[in-house]
Amino acid sequence: MPFVTSGNDSSGESRRGGPASDDTSSAGPPPSRTTPTAATDLVAARKQLLRRTDGAKRTDAPALRQVMVDLHDFWLTTKGAELGVRPDSGFAIVAVGGLGRQELLPHSDLDLILLHDDMDPAVVSEVADGLWYPLWDAHIKLDHSVRTVPQALQVAASDMSAALGLLEARHIAGDESLTELLITGVRRQWRADIRNRFVELVDQAGDRWRRSGDIAHRAEPDLKNGRGGLRDVQMLGALAIAQLTDGMANLRPDSPGAGLQVAYTRLLDIRTELHRIAGRPREQLRAQDADEIGAALRIGDRFDLARVISDSARTISYSVDVGLRTAGNALPRRGLAMLRRPPVRRPLDEGVVEHSGEVVLARNAIPSKDPGLILRVASASARTGLPISASTLSRLADYAPELREPWPSEALSDLLVLLGTGRHMVAPIEALDRTGLWGRLLPEWGAVRDLPPRDAIHTWTVDRHLVETAANASRMTTRVSRPDLLVLGALVHDLGKGRGADHSVVGAELATQIGNRFGLWPDDVATLSAMVRHHLLLPATATRRDLDDPATTRDVVDALGGDRLLLELLAALAEADSLATGPGVWGDWKASLIGELVRRCLRVMDGEELPTPEPLTDDQRARAEAGGVFVDIAATENAHTHLVTMIAPDTDGALSKMAGVLALNGLRCHSATAQSHAGSVVDTFMVIPAFGDPPDAGLLRQQLLQATAGTIDVLARIDARERESPIPTAPPPVTDPDGAPVAVPALFALAPPRVLWIDRESAAGTDGSPRTVLELRAADRSGLLSRVSAVIETHGAAIEWATVATMGGTVIDTFGLRLTEDSADLRSRLADAVIAVVPPPEPPRETDDEQGTSGVPIG
């Protein structure tokens, strides 16, 4: 387990035992030479401290760390005195890592160095054995080394991890002058060599970030090693010791995250509670622990905890960006580099220049008299791709006044320039947000800042999702007649979230307020508000309702008031929003559905007759009347998508058997339609082969004949193929406390499946039978459409049409149903039966590897 053997917090070497010497390297503790001493009392005190979890007796996280430090300091000091490790003894006990920083967590290793002044090896061995063996015998995890000061400095000079650990060294007991020699020597050596070691330090951090990911947007973040984690703050501390940066990134106390130190302390408290709850040195926060940790820290539920983590991690990430950039610019120059002329200041905009690769204020800029300077700085940064200087942001935060309302046209123009730069806008907006400047421009932003999504399909926090949507929308500005409204609508479309009401309704009111502040014309304010109010209209209608039903198009046109511009903007916004949601949310199937809905709406707006459902072709009618089985596969404009037409007798389970045959041949169904004629069902499927070309239509027909005749069980074959598949579909084996295996389902969903009922305006068809719409949201699996169709058709419902949407590993399948009766009991039984055939939610598993992740976001 990496957290048991890690030596990254120590002096650079991880040693669990062996004879004490200057070159200890044994892989584990040797046989005991002594009986347990007072170390057992230390262990007992630790256990008693961690058992205090009831109400007032429970020690909070900061106090727990301090008590842990005091306990270990006391034991080490006492034991050292017993062994003769006293002032002027030639020995010193030095702590590094968590104990060195006085941030010892409940299950962290002890990272210790026994320093000696070139003493007799026999005496050194006796002292070291007397110190290490009681700790080993008490089963306290220990990283240790025995060194002289020159030896320790030599290790620090060659090992980056050792150097970083020794920069945090703290004297515990013994000869303090030895410790002082070590600490001053390591720091002097670090400052002298930083020019040569800076690249290695940055590369090491980059490797760590690639392994552990970004904490702010990670489902189950590594609080210690991830980007924006505790290690990053310690790296900034090392750069501050090298006198290259102050490590604080010029963040004001009133900035989001309240500054770097507060962000660091929050993550440290969360990591402390994670250790306490897990009962071991876990660094990855898992979903099943989030609610308990949030309650212990009085933060709230797992969503509140996720928001705090995101806020803290983004503050630290911003500080690291600034710190590394500042340190790189401050590196001491040598040789010919010392003779180079100072960098030239290059004008970028009014009052804005480029200097040393950063966007800074011009010498004659006066922030207190120039409210629009913030947006000019941000737009210049986005246009050039250059970062904004931390000192510039700090100066703007201190002196820039609020923009008057309505904004001057120049300010709105600069905002539109910023929003039109695509992904280049992300970094400057993040910089403005971390320093409190973005909130001055958009006070409504505070409600969604670091707000975690409630749906697992979303990749980003709500505020970052808005920025990503605007970045996507900026690539679509040539498609619409009002690109300014498109990017503004993308930026504010979800601002109503986190306010306890329908975010589209609340957001529309906020959009009116924001539009007036921006100085838009009244008609444009109304359009912006309508964009936010109806930003879900097109995707929801296209994926949930029958497009061949004339009422579907009329409802959309009526909702939009026949406004062609609004329809055009909503179509582009739907795509930008979907692309910013997560992988697989936007694809050919969704684009085609929304495109068809938009075309139908435009025809109605232009006064054309609303198209009726497309009739069957003469060939399809003839084949349906013949009563046989027919299968055809046709290519589409997309090279990877194919249209499959199947005609068979209209019997119970026809759709299920057709979908099952497709799944059996590796054809993923993305949409389906069904019509009946002369006792036959004519179904069309838009499919994508799992790989290669689709199978021959004759093979599909032969299998459909066998399925219709009942000679093969398609679902049974799909189940058998799932069991034989080499692709793992189940988590690692689960065992009970006695080691016996626990039976678990073969498939798991990352989020619980849901069945929604969407009643249509017309409750009954022409035959008097009730109609409704069933929407299934669940994890995908092979043959899911076939399984669900079979269940529906055997539980008192007939499928009139279906729309299949696959978003990554999640499906949203919508079925237009004709019921034999419309009763709560029938709906309940049908919903339960559908849920029974989809992958169930994944149960909590305590046996996962520490580095694994269930994928269930804590927020």
Automatic annotation (TrEMBL):
Residues 1-11 have a biased composition (Polar residues). CDD domains: ACT_UUR-ACR-like. Residues 1-347 are annotated as: Uridylyltransferase. It catalyses: [protein-PII]-L-tyrosine + UTP = [protein-PII]-uridylyl-L-tyrosine + diphosphate; [protein-PII]-uridylyl-L-tyrosine + H2O = [protein-PII]-L-tyrosine + UMP + H(+). Pfam families: GlnD_UR_UTase, HD. PROSITE patterns: ACT, HD. Keywords: Hydrolase, Magnesium, Multifunctional enzyme, Nucleotidyltransferase, Repeat, Transferase. The keyword Magnesium applies. Signal peptide: none annotated. Uridylyltransferase (UTase) activity is inhibited by glutamine, while glutamine activates uridylyl-removing (UR) activity. InterPro entries: ACT-like_dom_sf (IPR045865), ACT_dom (IPR002912), HD/PDEase_dom (IPR003607), HD_domain (IPR006674), NT_sf (IPR043519), PII_UdlTrfase/GS_AdlTrfase (IPR013546), UTase/UR (IPR010043). Its EC number is 2.7.7.59, 3.1.4.-. Residues 1-39, 838-859 are annotated as: Disordered. GO terms for molecular function: nucleotidyltransferase activity. Its cofactor is Mg(2+). Residues 462-580 form the HD domain. Residues 643-719, 773-845 form the ACT domain. Modifies, by uridylylation and deuridylylation, the PII regulatory proteins (GlnB and homologs), in response to the nitrogen status of the cell that GlnD senses through the glutamine level. Under low glutamine levels, catalyzes the conversion of the PII proteins and UTP to PII-UMP and PPi, while under higher glutamine levels, GlnD hydrolyzes PII-UMP to PII and UMP (deuridylylation). Thus, controls uridylylation state and activity of the PII proteins, and plays an important role in the regulation of nitrogen metabolism. Has four distinct domains: an N-terminal nucleotidyltransferase (NT) domain responsible for UTase activity, a central HD domain that encodes UR activity, and two C-terminal ACT domains that seem to have a role in glutamine sensing. NCBIfam families: PRK03381.1, UTase_glnD. Belongs to the GlnD family. This is Bifunctional uridylyltransferase/uridylyl-removing enzyme. It comes from Williamsia maris. The lineage of its organism: Bacteria, Bacillati, Actinomycetota, Actinomycetes, Mycobacteriales.
